[in-house]
Design a protein that fits this description.
490 residues, alpha/beta, FAD/NAD(P)-binding domain, Polyamine Oxidase, Chain A, domain 2, Guanine Nucleotide Dissociation Inhibitor, domain 1, 3 domains, 7-stranded mixed sheet, binds flavin-adenine dinucleotide
């Protein structure tokens, strides 16, 4: 049926198949059409600048899960908040785009638990020692380091031995088999929910433990609490977390300026089909205008679920099978604007487990540090509340009305920061049906398989192919561009 509609469009509606500004009867054939203007799709387009490329994005702006909003003088992240130190293709792109990277000043992390705030780089360490003992903490930190060292072998993922085992067990199983006290589960369960929208018993040990190890990078163990305090005070103040004055969204904005007319926004792709040697990409522009574009190669840079839906007629059986095994966690962020800061003592305040909210980010933390004079004219303050499901299978975040979600969040922030809801003067809610691809057990194995599949010109990009972070999504776009070039040159 899809083929029939496409043939109909090609034969009888030639004008509909034209790109904007084209006047010929013969529809133009692009080298590559890219679906999705998140960082994966944008990076792919950027690395295909010698080719004739068209990127289609359904929203009115690019950026996807890494877009930045603006409320009066406050820039705030709707999704991605920070990066690790960018490397390779991403670092090069940031440099070429002329963007100034800012290291997030310390304290970047503060943990709230039992009415207390544990401040600083190793605040979590202090909390864990206080709630267990120094010996348990040393054992835990060392086991994480060992895990981290093993992880260095990725991405040479042959996934043998211990790596394969860690891919196949959940993080909770790892905590259980090491007999760590319950407090460790609680502290890291909320970390996993905040970072990936999934609980410790849902996410693969291999996927999440290196993330936890990052907290104690270089920590060699201590004999007593005095030594721990000394170790804590010896930190150099660097956080290893980065952003831009206007948030991570500065990258998609700069890329969209750089790519100019190669991007068409407000264009939702509905289907992709193979027509002879080419691909036919059908879409709806501005909510009502049906169009189609032809290309020699297509990069689908959306979530796996969307790729499966729109690519149904063109994906191989193996691609479909692997894509259908990717599960997603829903997620929401609630930006609260206030007449005075709700919390301005650090970048990320992590809340104890059991709440709808996992983190409160202070939106102006970086601006306060790097652009202090601008702060003098500040007419509002912003905090971004992360609302994560208790389990990725729980979709209530998508089902609550805006009013219900806001009211739950305001009650929750008052429990942590009493009286703060009274200062809220505005808000913006962003919901993500496909917030994070969940790295369920076996997901590394699945990635290896997905990478091996030859899509015959239909190429996949997106964070679910590597790791659910901005930088990994950018890498997937870079790799997709390489695959497209290889396909075009064959
Ligand atoms: C709340 C939240 C916080 C996060 N925080 C961080 C963080 O601090 N650091 C970090 O590294 N990572 C973070 N991440 C993860 C990071 O944002 C993502 O891994 C990354 O942005 C994914 O990029 P992507 O291009 O793969 O997907 P997306 O950004 O989702 O891009 C896909 C694009 O495709 C478009 N699209 C979908 N369907 C169609 C269609 N039919 N036609 C046309 N276009 C379509 C979408 O509108 C979207 O723009 C966070 C994610 C969330 C949800």
């Amino acid at each position: 049926m899809i083929h029939f509609i496409i043939l109909f469009l090609i034969c009888f509606l030639p004008c509909a198949a034209l790109g904007a500004g084209e006047v010929n009867d013969t529809p133009k054939v692009y080298d590559v059409v890219i679906v999705g203007g998140g960082i994966a799709g944008l990076t792919a387009a950027y690395n295909l600048d010698d080719y004739d490329v068209l990127l289609l994005e359904m929203k009115k702006e690019v950026g996807g899960r890494a877009s930045t909003g603006q409320y009066r003088t406050v820039s705030f992240a709707r999704g991605a908040e920070y990066l690790g130190k960018p490397e390779d293709a991403l670092a090069e792109m940031i440099d070429e785009l002329g963007l100034t990277l800012r290291e997030i000043p310390a304290p970047a992390d503060i943990v709230f638990r039992g009415g207390k705030f544990y401040v600083g780089e190793l605040g979590k360490a202090r909390l864990l020692v206080e709630k267990s003992n120094i010996g348990e903490f040393n054992r835990f930190a060392r086991r994480l380091q060992e895990m981290y060292d093993t992880y260095d072998e990725i991405p040479d993922i042959s996934l043998k031995g211990e790596l394969a085992r860690m891919d196949n067990i959940t993080a909770k199983q790892w905590f259980d088999e090491n007999h760590f006290p319950q407090i460790y589960h609680e502290v890291y369960n909320v970390t996993a929910r905040g970072l990936f929208g999934a609980a410790l018993d849902e996410i693969s040990a291999l996927a999440v433990l290196p993330e936890f190890a990052f907290d104690f990078d270089g920590f060699e163990g201590v004999d007593d609490e005095d030594e721990l305090a000394l170790e804590l005070s010896e930190t150099d103040g660097s956080t290893g977390m980065y952003t831009f004055d206007k948030g991570i969204g500065a990258i998609p904005v700069a890329l969209s300026q750089d790519l100019g007319d190669s991007i068409r926004t407000n264009t939702r792709v509905t289907a992709i089909a193979r027509v002879g040697e080419l691909f036919e990409v059908s879409c709806i522009e501005n909510g009502n205008k049906e169009l189609s574009y032809r290309a020699e190669a297509v990069i689908i840079a959306t979530s796996a679920a969307v790729a499966l839906d729109i690519g149904d007629g063109a994906l191989s059986g193996r691609q479909r099978q692997l894509l259908s095994s990717v599960e997603y966690a829903p997620y929401a962020t609630i930006a609260l604007f206030s007449d005075s800061p709700i919390f301005d003592k650090g970048f990320d305040l992590a809340i104890e487990d059991g709440n709808i909210l996992t983190d409160i980010y202070y939106a102006s933390w970086v601006a306060d540090h790097y652009l202090p004079r601008k702060g003098e004219n500040r007419d509002a303050w912003g905090s971004v509340i992360c609302a994560a499901p208790k389990s990725y299978r729980d979709h209530s975040l998508l089902e609550l009305s805006d009013k219900e979600l806001l009211s739950e969040v305001l009650v929750a922030i008052d429990k942590v920061l009493p009286g703060s809801s009274a200062h809220v003067v505005g808000h913006e809610i962003t919901r993500f049906r496909h917030g994070f691809p969940v790295m369920t057990p076996g997901s590394y194995q699945r990635m290896v398989e997905l990478d091996k599949v030859d899509g015959q010109g239909l190429i996949l990009a997106g964070d679910y192919l590597i790791y659910p972070t901005f930088e990994a999504a950018a890498s997937s776009g870079y790799l997709a561009a390489e695959k497209a070039i290889e396909w075009l040159s064959d």
